[in-house]
C-alpha cells in the first residue's frame, strides 16, 4: 500500500504545483494587462489635454510703446506663422523693441481656466494670474513675495479661454490693436491669511497653485472712499494683458 501511494502523492503534489503556477501566471498576466491599460489611459488623457490646451509665449507692447515697436511686434508674429493650430510654447529669440512677455495656458476645450504668467524679466514682479471659471475666482500668485491673493472673477471683463485664444490670434495678425484698453483697480488685503481648507473651499485650482504660499482674500476699494497710500512700499502693482484689455491691480497691504 505504501509503495502504491507514493506515485499518487507525487502526482497530486505536481498537480497542486501546476495549479499554483497557473494561478500565479494568470495573476501576473492580469496585473500586466491592467498596468498597460492604466498606462495607455494616462497617455491618452495627456494627449487629449495637450490637444485641448492653448499654450503660447507672447510678446506685447509696454504702455506708451512707439509705433516702431508695434510694427516690429506685428512683423515678428507674421513671420513666424503663430496661427497653426494649438501648438506648444513658442520659444526662440524675442522680437526687437520694448515689450512685455506673457505665457498663456488656456483650457480651450472645457473653458475651465486661464493661466497667464508674466516673468520678472518683463519689467514687473514674477507673477501668475489664474482665472478659475468653475469656481468664479481669480488668483494672483506673487512668486517674489511667495504670496497668493484671491478675488471674485469678473466675468464682465475677463474673456473666456476660447474667446481669449481668438483675440490673441486677431492681435498677432493685426486685426486687433496691440494697444489695449487700460483698466485700473485698487484692492485691499484682508488679514489674517486663509487656511488651506478655506482656500480649497473657494477654488481647488487656486489651492493647488498656492499650496506653499500664504493666501489672502482681496477686498475691492470703492473709488469714492479711496485714499492714495502715502507709502508706495505698501502698494504692489500687478499688470495683466488679456486680449484687448490691460489690467493694473494695485494691492494695498
TrEMBL record:
It is found in: Membrane. One of its GO terms (molecular function) is amyloid-beta binding. Residues 121-218 form the BRICHOS domain. The chain crosses the membrane at residues 20-45. Keywords: Cell membrane, Disulfide bond, Glycoprotein, Membrane, Signal-anchor, Transmembrane, Transmembrane helix. InterPro entries: BRICHOS_dom, ITM2. It is a single-pass type II membrane protein. SMART domains: BRICHOS. The keyword Ligase does not apply. The keyword Cell membrane applies. GO terms for biological process: negative regulation of amyloid precursor protein biosynthetic process. GO terms for cellular component: extracellular exosome; Golgi apparatus; plasma membrane. Belongs to the ITM2 family. PANTHER family: INTEGRAL MEMBRANE PROTEIN 2 (PTHR10962:SF1), INTEGRAL TRANSMEMBRANE PROTEIN 2 (PTHR10962). This is Integral membrane protein 2. It comes from Bemisia tabaci (Sweetpotato whitefly).
